[in-house]
Task: inverse folding
């Protein structure tokens, strides 16, 4: 059985006399920093000189310094910048100040699992990986709740790594929802797999294919958008609240029957076979190597794909329709 930790399993006093340095102030960085600050802990945000986030962090009442100064002054150093940027920042700014007994912390295991960052043996290395985007993590915390997280220990040089990790999880609010114990390997590989085959790659590819099928058959793009994109949130919200059973209870019998009989025709065995291939590429390091090389070469394919997908007709139609729904949050 998986081990799950809750509020009773941690004490913030484990971090009360320590300084926590947050590298980055993006999606995850701002949420971790603000939640920890609101929990009464001592936080520094480390940024590069000239960062647009510097003023934002200071306006939020946070102490800000360069990443190197932050690493020098912190006992717990949390890497919350994108995976491709971590190796250089680590080597240049963090490693020179990573003295014995400090903690090097991650919210995703990519750098450790694929060895783009290799810490010295005399520091603790652990992970608290929230299962939500940073803005949602912060929003839920302010409401008095928390998002679940995963906990993993890679190195326990001090003998207190788990104690510190649980205190950190309490500080960011995750113990309110539950923290599951795992490994860097499992978190990294399952996270990449989920992003690629369901949460991002799978869903967006399915939406585009369905939209194109309807439009090519002569249906109005606006009708197609509502059916395959807009209503998706309603279905996901139902599953989020009560699983697939509750979603099926909430929709019509016609929709439920179509779910059982037509869904497996679309997502058939060959799709599952392709999922296994994607997982193989994650497990054997092929995807990591490809992504690292892509970044080393200046991201030519990534930027081309970003531009191509931004110009897809479903995006154009969706933007026009959402403009007529002012109650939706702005994505600007």
Result:
């Amino acid at each position: 059985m998986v081990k799950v930790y809750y509020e009773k399993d941690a004490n913030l006093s484990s971090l009360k006399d320590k300084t926590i340095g947050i590298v980055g102030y993006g999606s995850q960085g701002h949420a971790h920093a603000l939640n920890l600050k609101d929990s009464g802990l001592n936080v520094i945000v480390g940024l590069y000189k000239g960062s647009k986030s510097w003023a934002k962090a200071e306006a939020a009442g946070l102490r800000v310094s360069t990443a190197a100064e932050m690493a020098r002054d912190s006992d717990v150093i949390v890497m919350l910048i994108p995976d491709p940027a971590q190796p250089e920042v680590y080597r240049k700014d963090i490693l020179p100040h990573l003295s014995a007994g400090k903690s090097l912390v991650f919210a995703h295991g990519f750098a450790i699992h694929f060895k783009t960052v290799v810490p010295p043996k005399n520091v603790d290395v652990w992970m608290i990986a929230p299962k939500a985007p940073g803005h949602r993590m912060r929003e839920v915390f302010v409401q008095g709740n928390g998002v679940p997280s995963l906990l993993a220990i890679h190195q326990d040089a001090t003998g207190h790594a788990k104690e510190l990790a649980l205190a950190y999880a309490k500080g960011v609010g995750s113990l309110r929802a539950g923290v599951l114990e795992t490994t860097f390997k499992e978190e990294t590989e399952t996270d990449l797999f989920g992003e690629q085959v369901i949460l991002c790659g799978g869903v967006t590819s399915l939406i585009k294919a369905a939209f194109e099928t309807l439009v090519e058959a002569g249906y109005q793009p606006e009708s197609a958008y509502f059916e395959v994109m807009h209503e998706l949130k309603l279905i996901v919200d139902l599953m989020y609240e009560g699983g697939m059973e509750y979603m099926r209870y909430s929709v019509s019998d016609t929709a439920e029957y179509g779910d059982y009989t037509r869904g497996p025709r679309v997502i058939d065995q060959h799709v599952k076979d392709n999922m296994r291939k994607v997982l193989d590429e994650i497990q054997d390091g092929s995807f990591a190597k490809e992504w690292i090389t892509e970044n080393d070469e200046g991201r030519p394919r990534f930027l081309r794909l970003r531009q191509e997908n931004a110009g897809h007709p479903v995006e154009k139609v969706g933007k026009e329709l959402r403009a007529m729904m002012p109650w939706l949050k702005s994505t600007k």
About this structure: The beta strands are 4-5, 19-23, 42-47, 63-66, 76-79, 103-106, 124-130, 149-155, 179-181. The CA atoms of residues 304 and 323 lie 26 Å apart. DSSP finds 16 helices and nine strands in the chain. The mean pLDDT is 96.
